[in-house]
């Protein structure tokens, strides 16, 4: 029996291209390589430019390159993994899921049910390709446990991720992807981002890592709030709002 080849990937990381991000992609990639990850997916808020660049230069750091973006849908956030084009923000959740698939990517639901972070509510998740069942930035384990229960009852593949917005939190949680070698990809060197995305769809994932310490999470939230406020005050391109929970009747 051929052994599966493991890859350690953090699928949910922000750069300074996010309104609440902090570090340039070069520092993120360098840090990811230093701590032993095989790759990170830059998933900036409604921006894909730096993610595309990160995926292109990732091999220079010994990493697998996978592009992505965190899309603000009408009903909450959605990770579009493996896409090279940004889905239009502000559209209904399920419509965005279909758009991600049409673009050749997979639709992953991040931090579901957590309204304070634009998590999608259960009734809107009619379908998805995977669920982020471990987000290291959550202060308690309750939301992660709820996401895990939801995913397992519906047989969705699971991923874990850091949701890092600044460097020390990258890789606090990640996903171990188990890839079956083939005649075309017999070793780790031949396996690319498409192979890793396919492995997620097949459910060959294991969650690794732990929660980010509360004091570090607090620092990230505080810095993010300041940057978001500055963005709102200075930008002519306002953030795409999701529907407030109290007004969501769809």
From TrEMBL:
Polymerase/histidinol phosphatase N-terminal domain: from which residue to which, for each copy? 9-75
Q: Which GO terms describe its molecular function?
A: 5'-3' DNA exonuclease activity; 5'-3' RNA exonuclease activity
Origin: domain of life: Archaea
- Per its UniProt record, what InterPro entries does this chain match? PHP_dom, PHP_domain, Pol/His_phosphatase_N, Pol/histidinol_Pase-like
- PANTHER family reported in the protein's UniProt record: EXONUCLEASE, POLYMERASE_HISTIDINOL PHOSPHATASE N-TERMINAL DOMAIN-CONTAINING PROTEIN
What name goes with this protein? Phosphoesterase
């Amino acid at each position: 029996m051929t052994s599966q080849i493991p890859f350690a990937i953090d699928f949910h990381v922000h750069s300074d291209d996010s309104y609440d991000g902090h570090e340039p992609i070069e520092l993120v990639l360098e840090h990811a390589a230093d701590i032993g990850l095989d790759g990170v997916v830059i998933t900036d808020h409604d921006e894909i430019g730096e993610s595309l660049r990160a995926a292109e230069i990732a091999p220079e750091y010994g990493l697998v390159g996978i592009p992505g973006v965190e899309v603000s849908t009408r009903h909450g956030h959605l990770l579009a993994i493996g896409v090279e084009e940004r889905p239009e923000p502000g559209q209904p959740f399920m419509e965005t899921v279909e758009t991600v698939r049409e673009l050749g990517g997979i639709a992953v639901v991040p931090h579901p049910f957590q309204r304070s972070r634009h998590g999608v509510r259960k009734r809107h998740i009619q379908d998805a390709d995977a669920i982020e069942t471990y987000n290291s930035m959550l202060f308690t384990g309750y939301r992660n446990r709820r996401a895990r229960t939801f995913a397992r009852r519906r047989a969705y593949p699971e991923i874990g991720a850091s949701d890092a917005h600044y460097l020390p939190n990258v890789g606090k949680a990640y996903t171990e992807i188990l890839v079956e070698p083939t005649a075309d990809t017999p070793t780790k060197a031949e396996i690319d981002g498409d192979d890793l995305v396919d492995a997620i769809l097949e459910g060959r994932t294991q969650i690794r890592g732990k929660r980010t310490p509360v004091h570090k999470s607090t620092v990230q939230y505080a810095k993010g709030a300041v940057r978001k406020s500055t963005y709102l005050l200075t930008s002519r391109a306002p953030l795409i709002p999701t529907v407030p929970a109290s007004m969501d009747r769809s």
